[in-house]
Amino acid sequence: MQASAGTPVKRVIGNWKMNGDRVANTDLLAELKKAGPWVAEVAVCVPFPYLGDVALSLQGGRIAWGAQDCSAHESGAYTGEVSAAMLAEFGCRYVLVGHSERRAGHGESDQLVADKAKRALAHGLTPVVCVGETLEQRDAGQTEEVVKRQLSAVIHTLGPCIPQIVVAYEPVWAIGTGRTATPEQAQAVHQRLRQQLHAATDKAARISLLYGGSVKPDNAVELFAQPDIDGGLIGGASLKAADFAAICRAAD
Ligand code: PGA
Question: What is the CATH architecture assignment of 11-66+126-151+163-250?
Answer without folding.
Answer: Alpha-Beta Barrel (3.20)
